[in-house]
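Hmm, what's this shape?
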Amino acid sequence: FSPGLLVVAGSFAAFRLLNRGLERLVPPPPSARRNRWKTPGGKWGTGALPDTHNLSPCRFYLHPEMSNDLVGTHPPGAHSLVAVSVGYFLEDFVDMLCNQKLHQSWELLFHHSVVIICFGIAVLLHQYVGFALVALLVEINSIFLHLRQILLMANLVHTTCYRLNSLINLGTYVVFRIATLAWMAHWLFLNRQNVPPATYAVGTAGMAIMTPMNIILFYRLLRSDFFK
């Protein structure tokens, strides 16, 4: 039994409670009420909040030694941060299963399944925590991706705020999603001799799944916000 599992469970419960609180404090707009998943925990709820994922750059700043060893070196707080993120993705996964039709959410469910498996390995083994923190850099872009969805639901698509957010969203998408995933794939390739075959297979499969998904989403964003 790993103590990290307690952190995962606590994170899951905390985000569930936060969802319920947000539902009462910030009523969703009519467009969100038509889709249950867009209310408490989805696009209008905690899914729209800058969460603990975005603390990963702070960890590399405070503990630069992790940059030299993404496998075995990590402070206790870094392991807890990854465990909290697993709880977040689990909560969002359950929320989608309960409130969203499968044909509308299968891509996100698939994405969350890959993240939960990969991060879960890091939490249970206390290894590859640094690599998981690199992956969490991707979530910096989620701030602007979720803000875009909120502006859409609030019918503010023809505003300067939406246009500015679209530009920042695409810029951070390239830097923190596409470039980060490319670096991670390159790191896996260079360190394949130092990573156990089973872990290497999981990591490679994760990269093979996440990279095309993010490229397709980038194309959709570009087409919707600039070429429509």
Notes: Residues 160-190 form the longest helix (31 residues). The chain has one domain: 3-226.
